Amino acid sequence: MSIGHIYAQNLTKHFRHVQAVRGVNLDIAPGEIYGLIGPDGAGKTTTIRMLAGVMKPTAGTARVSGFDVVHQAEKLRHHVGYMAQRFSLYGDLSVRENLEFYADIFGVRGAEREAQIQRLLRFARLEEFQDRAADALSGGMKKKLGLACALIHRPRVLFLDEPTNGVDPISRREFWDILSDLHLAGVTIFVSTAYMDEAERCSRVGLMYQGEIIQQGTPSELRQLVRGELIAIVTDDLITTERIVAQLDGVSETQAYGDRLHVFVDDAARRLPDIERALRAANVRVTQIRPTAPRLHEAFIALVKHQRPPTADN
Ligand SMILES: Nc1ncnc2c1ncn2[C@@H]1O[C@H](COP(=O)(O)OP(=O)(O)OP(=O)(O)O)[C@@H](O)[C@H]1O
Ligand SMILES: [Mg+2]
C-alpha cells in the first residue's frame, strides 16, 4: 500500500446509544484533497479521529499509508498531521514557542527543528508575528498556526477537521491557498468543512449524513445529481412565494436562502412564466426571477432531503 493512500472498509463507531459512524468505505489516492461534508452530528469528527489513529473503531478496518489505524496507531500518529476541530494552542506561549512545543512532541530536533520552524512561519505567513502570544492572534492566524503545528513533522497525510470554521472569507481563502501549496507538494489532504465553496476546491467530496457517506464524487459529478433545473427568485415575501410556488405543476422542491428562493423544476423555460403569473396574481413583489445553475449546495440539500428518514433504532 502506497504512502498517502487512505483506505477504510466498513469503518464503524458506536457510542453507547449513538451509531456515530456506520460502515464507511473510503479509497483515497495519494495526493487527493478529499472533502467531507455533512450537517452537525453527521459523524465527520468521529471518522477523522479514527483515521488519524486517536480513536478506536467499534468495527471495520482502516489503513493510512499502509498503517493499520488500530494496530499501528502510534506509528500512524507520527506519520500523519491532525488538526482537531477544537485544537489547542498554548495561549500564553508565542507563535514560535507553540511550534517549538510541537516540534518537541514529534521529535523534530537539531538543525532540522529550526529549519522546519522557519519554513512553516514563512509558509503560514506568520513570520512577522512569531513573537506574539497565540492568544493575541486573530482567528484566521490561530488557524494558520494550528495548521503549521500539524505540519511540524512533515506529514504526508493531513487530517483537518473544519479548519476554517468561524473564520472570515479572506482568511479562509488564504488558508486554502496554503492547502493548495501542500496539495502541489503531494500531501494527501482529508478535510471536513461546512463551506460549500471549500468543497468545490476538493478533488472529491463525500456527503456524510447520519453516520454514512451517502454520496461521493467530484464536485461536478455531485452537481449533476441534481435532477431538473433551477429557478432563483428574489423577493421580500419569501414565505408567501414559497407557499404559492411549491403548489405549481413541475415544481419538485424549494430551498430558501435569505431573501432568495431556489425552485427546482422539470423545465425552467417552461415553468418560469407560470411562476411569474402565479406570483403576480397573488400580488407578491418579485425583485428578480431567472434560471440558475445548481451549486454543490443545492445538490447536497436535495440529496439529504431525499434520504430515507432515520429508522427507530438510531
Ligand atoms: N465521545 C462521544 N460520546 C458519545 N457520543 C458521541 C461522542 N462523540 C460524538 N458523539 C456523537 O456521535 C455523533 C457524531 O458526532 P461527530 O462529532 O462525529 O459529528 P460531526 O459531523 O463532527 O458534527 P459537527 O459538525 O457538529 O462537528 C453525534 O451524535 C455525537 O453526539
Ligand atoms: Mg465535528
Task: Give a description of the structure.
This protein is of the alpha/beta class and 314 residues long. It has two domains: 6-216, Rossmann fold; 229-293, Alpha-Beta Plaits, CATH 3.30.70.100. The protein contains eleven helices and 14 strands. The protein has helices spanning 44-51, 73-79, 95-105, 110-123, 139-150, 169-184, 196-199, 219-223, 238-246, 268-281, 296-305; strands spanning 6-15, 18-28, 33-37, 59-64, 67-68, 80-83, 157-161, 188-192, 204-209, 212-217, 229-235, 251-257, 260-265, 286-292. The strands form three sheets. It has a six-stranded mixed beta sheet with strand order 6-7-8-3-9-10, with helices on both faces. A four-stranded antiparallel beta sheet has the order 2-1-4-5, covered by helices on one side. A four-stranded antiparallel beta sheet has the order 12-13-11-14, with helices on both faces. The two termini are 35 Å apart. Magnesium ion is lined by residues 44-45, 85, 161. Adenosine-5'-triphosphate binds next to strand 2 and helix 1.
